[in-house]
Amino acid sequence: MKEITSTDFEKEVLKGGKVVVDFYSTECPPCEALAPKFESLASLFGSEAKFVKIFRQQNRDLADKLGVKSSPTVLFFEDGKEVGVRLSGGIRRHDLFEGMKALVGKEKVKEIKLQIKPETSQYDVAILGGGPGGLTAGLYLCQAKVNTVLIDVGLPGGNVSTTHMVSNYPGFIDPQPGYMLSHFMSEQTKQCGTSYKVAVDVTHVDLVNKKIVLDDYETIQARKIIIATGTSPNFLGVPGEKELKGNGISYCATCDAKYFGEKEVIVIGGGNSAIEEADFITKFASKVTIVHQFDKLQANKTAQEKAFANKKIGFMFEHEPRSFRKSGNSVIAEVEDLKTKLRKELVADGVFIFVGLKPNLSLFTDKLELDNWGYIKTDEDKRTNIEGVYAVGDVSSKKYRQITTAIADGTIAAISITKELD
Predict the structure, then answer these.
(1) What CA–CA distances, in Å, run from 246 to 250, 352, 364, 382?
(2) Residue 258 above 90 pLDDT?
(3) Identical fold at 120-232+357-421 and 241-353?
(4) Domain 120-232+357-421 has CATH 3.30.420.40
């Protein structure tokens, strides 16, 4: 693997046969997460293709010419032509192998994968999930000199990283962008010494025996496990929702609101997330219609007052969506008046859905004790019913779910574990 610049691109890439190119940047967590996977890929497929890295910030003209808009971005070239699918963001090991299939063929990839020797890594504590709870636990543990690894199927930050602004986090006078607050937390924990294995496929978890298998080849063996997998957005479950996800329907205003400049948008929900994100969306959209099933909002009073004062926001109380469909570039939302049972169609350029969250527990097959809402029960030290397994943050059973409560959970679990290991 070698580093090249734009002046080398024609010789090394366009005339280089089969080439894999990684456009990276500095101060880029996804780039840092990709680096060891890219190096591993180069060692496995080095006889089949050339692997090069290009520093995007110093080769911006070339990046722009190729349409590379984010870091990292991995491209696959064969005889000067790009093949396969571009990869960007939180690139997983599985994604890289899929990309190699377009370059060297499925059979060659299969042959090389069979040569990979399984690895086992030993840690005192494995944290599953990189939200505020998991990051705080990692920080406290590494400061206590406890050998800790943090594992996440995405990138560290959790739901906070997709929150527009956080105004109630202690220590900051001005509201902080969610992605920056997540970045600060993650960097603090990483610099402390916690090992990171992020943007990975968690293929098996054995809570009883404290084993976690990553990417089908690496086994993490730990003495203790902290579950910090957080929550995911609930779906409405109405016709058309699944089909239009990412194609007119979104669950993240921070991610997608920018694409609705001077357009009309529908927001489903009436809680804090729905109302606060609706206000954020009006920075771009010309009109936002909030559709809510109850006769009043459930958001906090400050958010409500701000929304009611926003001239771009309209409200449809006691209505529920019944279906979604696409008509050209527009989304047609069929909504029902819960009083009269009459249905009408709303036409918009996009729909944002904020109707609560559900715990992320699909990784686990062991018998975790759950509450009536499906969250993990814990004691005051955040222990679960399985020996040596803890649960922190939004995935655990509790009355309130905030960044600060997740941080408190992570603190408690880490201190408890440190004392037990001592």
Answers:
(1) 6, 10, 27, 36
(2) no
(3) yes
(4) no
- Cβ-based neighbours of 66, under 8 Å, separated by 6 or more: 75
Going by pLDDT thresholds of 50, 70 and 90, the confidence category of residue 396 is very high
CA distances from residue 113 to 1, 74, 202, 242, 249 in whole angstroms, order as listed: 19, 20, 17, 33, 37
Closest CA to 195 of 149, 163, 240, 153: 149
82: tokens are 């790009």
Please write the tens of the pLDDT for every residue from 110-130: 999 998 989 999 999 999 999
Domain extents for the chain?
Answer: 2-113, 120-232+357-421, 241-353
Give the model's pLDDT for residue 1.
86
Q: What share of the chain is helix, strand, coil (3-state, %, to 5)?
A: 35, 30, 35
pLDDT in tens, 71-125: 999 999 999 999 999 999 889 999 999 999 999 999 999 999 998 989 999 999 9
CATH 3.40.50.1970 fits 241-353, yes or no: no
Give per-residue pLDDT as tens, 328-382: 999 999 999 999 999 999 999 999 999 988 999 999 988 999 999 999 999 999 9
What's the CA gap between 393 and 168, in Å, rounded? 17
pTM to 2 decimal places: 0.83
Best CA proximity match to 58, nearest among 9, 2, 5, 3: 5
Q: Is the peptide bond before 359 cis (omega within 30 degrees of 0)?
A: no
Q: Per CATH, which fold does 2-113 belong to? A: Glutaredoxin (3.40.30)
